[in-house]
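Sequence in, structure out. First:
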Amino acid sequence: MASSALYFADRAEAGKRLAEALVGYAGRTDVLVLALPRGGVPVAYEVARTLAVPMDLWLVRKLGVPGQEELAMGAIAGKDTRVLNRDIINVLNIDKTTIEAVIVKEQAELERRNRLYRQGRPSPDIEGKTIIIIDDGLATGATMRAAIASLRQAGAARIIAAVPVGAASTCGKVEQDADELVCLYTPEPFYGVGQWYDDFSQTSDESVLALLESAVKSQGGAATKPEKAV
C-alpha cells in the first residue's frame, strides 16, 4: 500500500481507479462486488461495471458515540454480528446500557435501509463466492470489520476488502481480518476520508437506489438468491 496525498475528484473516479487495482478479478463467475451503503455504492458501482461482475449491497451500521456520532465505537451487520472498538469505549468510559441503546437504534435503521434498498429483492448469495467488499475509505474501520465478520458467517470463500484511501493503522487491522486488502493510498497524517476527495457530498438514498437498479438490470439479477432478505 503506497502512501500519497493525492485527491480523488469524487467517489465515481475513485471507483474507476480502484478497479484498475482489481483487474485480476475481471469477468470471474465466482466474484461478487458488495458495497457498504451509502458512500461505498458509487465506488463499488464503477468497480463492478469495469470488472464486468455482479454488484449488490451489504448493510452495516456504524455505532456512533453519543454526541460524537462520527466517531465509531463499533458497528453492526445483520442481526447477529457486532464489532466493538474497545479502545474508544474504554477511553470515553461508555457503559453497556449506552452501547445497547445505540445498537437498538442502529438496528432499526439497518432494517429500514434493507426494506428501502432491496425493494423486495432477496439478499445476495454469499456462500462459496469471492467477495470484494467496498467502501469509500477506512477511518476507524469498524463498519468494514463488521462486514467482513458477517460475510465469514455467511460462508464467503474469500474476502477482499477494497477502498480508495485509508488510515494506515486501520488498514493494518482490516488486512488481518480480510483475505486481502486493496487500498490505493494511506496518507499520513490521515485526518479523515473526506479530506482526500474534492467532492465528498453525502450519497443520497435516491442515488443508492438508482445505482443498484442499474447494476441489477445489467447483471440480470445474478447476485441474488430466491429466499427472503434478512
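Second:
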Amino acid sequence: MMHISKKLVLMALLATLGSAPVASFAADDTAKPNTVKVPAMRSKVYEQLARAQKLADEGKADEAIAALDNVNSKRSSMNSYEIAMMNNFYAFIYYNMERVPEAIESFEKVVAEEAIPESLRKSTLYSLAQLHMSQENYQKTIQMMERWVKAGGDADNTNAMVLKAQAYYQLKEYENALAELKQAIKIISDGGETPKESLFVLQRAIYYSLKDPAAVTDVTETLVRLFNKPEYWIQLAGLYGEIGLEKKQLAMMEVAYQQGFITKRSDILTLAQLYVYHQVPYKAAVLLDKAIKEGVVEDSVKNLQFLAQAYTLSKNDEEAVPVLAKAAEKSEDGNLDAQLGQTYLNMEKYEEAIAATKRALEKGNLKDQGTAQLVLGMAYFNLKQFDKSLQALDVAAEHQSSKAMATQWKKYVSKEQQNAKAMADISA
C-alpha cells in the first residue's frame, strides 16, 4: 500500500548555508544524536542544487535532471553530504516523474554515504520501504524497515508496523503480519483512538488466510460495531451461517433489512431462504412479493415458484395460486402446472385442478406423471365423473410412484360408482 504523496515535496530549500536538508515522506523523523561528523555544504553546490529545485518547482523536470547531471559531473570534488543531497534531489524529481525504480536507485545512493545526518538516513530508509512496497518488492520493504529501526526509527511507530504487516501479508507470512498488525491496533487503541477501518480489514484478511473463521467473525463484529456499513452486516450474517450460528445469522440479516442495508437481489433471496429455513415462511413471502413488485428481484419461474412455495408453507393457498399460475404460464414444461393442479385439488377446486393437470400433461416432461394422473383421477371422482376418474387412475397405477395409492383409489371409486348406480336404480 502506497502512503507517499504524489506531490513533489523536496525539502524547504536550505534556509542557511551548511544546514542539512531532510527529506521525509511519512515516518517519524525524530533524530537521535549524530555519531558521524557531517561536512558542510559549500555555497557553489548549494546554488546548483537550488537551481535544480527551482526548475522542478516550475514543472521543468527534464531541465532539473539536466541541472543535477551537471552537478554530478563534478562529484569528484564533492563531499559525502553534498553527494547525498544531490542524490536526494534526483530521487524526489524521479518520483515526481513517476520513475519509481530510478527514485529508488537514487535514494539507495543517499544511504550509501556514511557522512550524512541520521535524520536524513532515517527518513530516506522509510521512503525506500514505501517505494519498494509500491513496486511489490515486499522483502525489500521489510529489510528497509528493519534498517530504519536500527538507524533510530521508532520501533513503536504504528504506521511502520502496518507497512511491515502489509509486506508480510503479501509474502504470505501471515503469522508475522498478524503480530505486527495486532501490536499496531493495540497501541492505537491504548492511546484512546479508534484504529483505521483498513487495519481491521487487513486483520480479517489475514485470519481468513489462516483459515480461522471464528477470528474472522470476531473482527467482522468489530467492523460492524465501529463502522456500521451495510456490507459488514451482510458479511457477518454469512459468517454466522458458516460457523453454524443460523439463528444469529437470521437475526443479523433481519436487523440489517430493517436498517435498509439489504437492497441487492442476492441478499433479499438469502433472507427469504433463511425465513423459510427457520419456519417463518410468511415473512419470506411478504419480503419476496415486495421485492418482485419493486423490480429488485425478477419474476422468473424460479423466483415465482419460491414465492408460491412460501405462501403454501404458510398455509396461504389463495395467495399462492395466482403466483404459481404465473410461474406455470412462464414454464416450458408441465411440472408447475401439475403442482398447481395439486394445489387446486387441496382447495377443493376440482374443475380448476383438472384444467391445470391437463395442461401439465400436454406440456409433458413431467418429473412424476403418475401423481399428475392420480390428481386427475381424484378430481374427476369428486365431480362424480367415475369413468374418467377410473381411466386416470388406471394410468396412475402404471407408474411406480403412484401405483399403490392409485390401486386403493380404484377400489374406492369402483365401489362408489356401484353405490351411485344402485341409488340411481332405486330412485328410478
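Remark: Confidence is low (pLDDT under 50) at residues 1-34.
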